[in-house]
Design brief:
Layout: E1 18-25, E2 30-35, E3 39-43, E4 54-57, E5 62-68, E6 72-77, E7 82-84, H1 85-90, E8 104-113, E9 116-125, E10 128-135, E11 140-146, E12 154-162, E13 165-172, E14 176-183, E15 195-197, E16 200-204, E17 206-207, E18 210-221, E19 224-232, E20 239-246, E21 251-257, E22 267-268, E23 272-277, E24 280-288, H2 293-296, E25 309-312, E26 323-326, E27 332-340, H3 359-365, H4 371-382, H5 390-407, H6 414-423, H7 434-441, H8 444-453, H9 459-471, H10 474-477, H11 511-518, H12 524-530, H13 539-549, H14 555-562, H15 567-586, H16 600-620, H17 622-647, H18 649-661
Parallel strand pairs: 11-15
Antiparallel strand pairs: 1-2, 2-3, 3-4, 5-6, 6-7, 8-9, 9-10, 10-11, 12-13, 13-14, 14-16, 17-18, 18-19, 19-20, 20-21, 22-23, 23-24, 24-27, 25-26
Helix pairs in contact: 6-8, 8-13, 9-13, 9-14, 11-17, 14-16, 15-16, 15-17
GO molecular function, one term: RNA binding
Pfam families: Nol11_C (PF20998), NOL11_N (PF08168)
Subcellular location: Nucleus, Nucleolus
């Protein structure tokens, strides 16, 4: 999520359907999925084809798989039977008992109580709700019945275990949360009649003038819950929101509207909320402090314990909504919020503790300050002792600078921005406007540094940089300071900027051999330009293009942008990639010298990507025909060369074995016949 890059994607065959959420086995680092109710699939990150992954067909339909860090995955079947994954894999077709007969499972969860895995699930039958508690190691199963509530029914459940007691929280349709306590210290024998569990009211979501219709509920700690739902106000459209409540004092701690709508689902993991907001994945970090009545009602007087969270929403900089502070002294604070669009941008928010002002408030105060005062204060802010929030603070500093650049076109602190990017561990998501401003100012050096250092640049920005690098003139680049470390070791340049060609044949390739093998003659006047022997771009442009080649990207998202690249620029870029390909092939280890030089894999990937995006156009253009022909000939020569090497691979291994068997101490000449 932090780098906004998909790490893996696996697809089922047409007609197959995933029927329960995929989980990760913490012990083996494998993924576990079930499709078509009974077919179990297990695979690892490096596996590409899901159809070739481990497959086991089970004898009963699976409801959920729960993964426990210390106990391994647990499989819950629709009939209420439970098996650990290890036991299930020993005999996939083993018979699974039907525990719940006509009941339908509505919710399930797994926990660790000491060393004991505990599975809890709720069922429904004819309007009645039941709770099952299964202790796996003891093979004990207890069934309970929930006390009925007039004219309302449970919508969702959540639970936690404390001191051998399961606390089950039920969100009912009457806008209330009820609590049910289930002791775990029971006899191992099953009860003949299910016990009716009484419930107690914990929360009522009716705030004066509004009613919260909850759709999802999660437990934060023993005194706090989070609710995702819609806020109904008389005479107005319902508005979806995320709210945090204190169950101990039944108070609303804080809430945030979600105007783009949600899927109705809320997940919580390692002090972070995950929810779908519109078309983006929203991640909200939170922190629970010790609950107290003074904090719950906003009467905490001790300023040292004042829990203030600063929200810095960089999407609304131009609207002068830099900081939104929640100063209600609540014990639960949204420590930082970051909305992550998986393909474009992530807004980062920091909670920076200062004696007087938060970072957001300080930046607001400096908004109209002079350039000297602004840069001096920002340097002081960055020079503070390292803190966990320092990186986010520096991101705020860069954003403040770029915001001023957008408001004042004459202002552009190039050296200050370069200093920050070169000396600080930043990312695109911390300062999403920086590269856009650099593109507008045509600051090629800053763009080069960002491409080399930022791990999470969106494909749209990578394409914009590539287009800018290809369109800028060589004459203009001569006056720009560009880092040449990636090209200076393999492009030799004379004083008239003409490349000094050195004939090196180390990898079985030369122009003459290629021409002989392909039985094609290329005119000498065009050969040096198009067969990859001379660099088609200058040093500065080559260094900038190398920075693009080093950027991380996802082919699916970059390809649509590459198709918009003008044909002439695409041909120039392909010529340069072809040049690099030839240079790499001249070396035995297919590695270019220099610092941050492109690798053979990066070159090949970009060549394939560019050809995929522009193949039809290039075939139609006369000026690209010769380039494609030479590229085809070169690749064919390489394939033939490695094919010949493969033919004598066995003989070479035999020679190596013979040399190990006899170690001659005297001079000798041996003639070995290779058949």
């Amino acid at each position: 999520i932090s780098d906004q890059k998909p790490l893996g994607c696996w697809s089922l065959k047409h007609g197959q359907v995933l029927t329960c959420p995929v989980v990760c086995n913490f012990e083996t680092h494998e993924y576990i999925a079930v499709h078509d109710d009974k077919v179990l699939r297990i695979w690892k990150n490096e596996d590409i084809n899901l159809d070739k992954a481990f497959k086991a067909t089970l004898s009963a339909d699976v409801y959920r798989i729960h993964s426990l860090p210390e106990a391994g995955p647990v499989v819950l079947f629709r009939g209420g039977g439970v098996r650990t994954l290890d036991v299930l894999l020993e005999a996939p077709q083993q018979e699974i008992e039907n525990v719940i007969s006509d009941e339908v499972i509505r919710w399930s969860a797994a926990f660790m109580e000491g060393q004991q895995p505990v599975l809890i699930f709720t069922t429904e039958k004819d309007g009645d709700f039941f709770v099952y508690v299964q202790k796996l190691k003891l093979s004990s199963l207890h069934k309970y019945k929930l006390e009925q509530q007039e004219s309302s029914k449970p919508l969702c459940f959540t639970a936690h275990i404390t001191n051998q007691t399961v606390t089950l929280l039920c969100l009912y349709s009457n806008d209330s949360v009820y609590q049910v306590l289930i002791p775990l210290q029971q006899d191992t024998e099953e009860e003949e009649e299910e016990e009716v569990l009484p419930k107690s009211l914990v929360l009522n979501f009716s705030v004066p003038g509004t009613v919260l219709k909850g759709t999802s509920l999660v437990v934060l700690d023993k005194d706090h819950v989070a609710v995702l739902g819609s806020l109904a106000v008389p005479g107005k459209e319902p508005r979806e929101c995320l709210s945090i409540w204190n169950t101990k004092f039944q108070t609303l701690q804080t809430s945030k509207e979600l105007p783009l709508g949600t899927s109705g689902q809320l997940w919580c993991y390692e002090e972070k909320f995950f929810l779908i907001h519109g078309k983006v994945l929203t991640v909200i970090m939170y922190k629970c402090e010790t609950s107290s009545l003074a904090a719950a009602v906003g009467k905490l007087k001790d300023s040292q314990n004042l829990d203030v969270s600063s929200f810095v929403n960089w999407n609304t900089l131009e609207d002068e909504k830099l900081v939104v502070s929640l100063q209600s002294q609540e014990s639960v604070a949204l420590k930082a919020e970051s909305k992550m669009n998986l393909r474009s941008r992530k807004s980062t928010v920091a909670k920076v503790q200062s004696e007087t002002l938060s970072v957001g408030q300080l930046l607001l105060n400096l908004k109209d300050a002079s350039t000297y005062v602004l840069e001096t204060e920002l340097r002081q802010l960055m020079s503070k002792a390292p803190t966990p929030d320092l990186q986010a603070t520096i991101g705020c500093v860069v954003t403040a600078l770029t915001d001023r650049c957008k408001r004042n076109p004459k202002y552009y602190p190039q050296n200050f921005l370069l200093e920050i990017v070169e000396t600080r561990d930043l990312s695109y998501s911390l300062c999403p406007d920086l590269m856009a401003v650099a593109l507008e100012k045509k600051d090629m050096h800053l763009l080069q540094i960002c491409l080399e250092r930022f791990p999470d640049i969106p494909e749209e920005i990578i394409y914009a940089c590539l287009k800018a690098f290809l369109s800028i003139s060589e004459a203009h680049l001569q006056n720009i300071d560009v880092n040449l470390d990636s090209v200076i070791c393999y492009i030799d340049v004379e004083f008239d900027d003409k490349e000094v060609k050195t004939e090196i044949v180390e990898n079985g390739f030369s122009a003459e051999m290629d021409q002989d093998m392909c039985d094609t003659k290329i005119p000498k006047e065009t050969q040096s330009r198009s067969d990859g022997e001379s660099c088609p771009v200058g040093l500065q442009k080559a260094a900038l293009l190398n920075a693009v080649l080093h950027s991380a990207y996802t082919e699916t998202f970059l390809l649509p942008h590459l198709k918009n690249l003008p044909a002439q620029q695409a041909i120039l870029f392909l010529r340069y990639l072809y040049y690099l390909y030839v240079k790499c092939s001249e070396k035995v280890n297919t590695t270019l010298p220099g610092i941050r030089s492109p690798t053979i894999n990066q070159i090949m990937d970009w060549m394939c990507l560019l050809l995929d995006a522009h193949f039809t156009v290039m075939v139609m253009l006369p000026e690209a025909k010769e380039l494609l022909s030479n590229l085809h000939k070169f690749v064919r020569a390489q394939v033939r060369f490695y094919s010949e090497l493969n033919k004598i691979e066995g003989s070479l291994r035999e020679l190596q074995r013979l040399n190990h068997l006899r170690e001659s101490q005297t001079y000798s000449i041996e003639v070995l016949e290779i058949i």
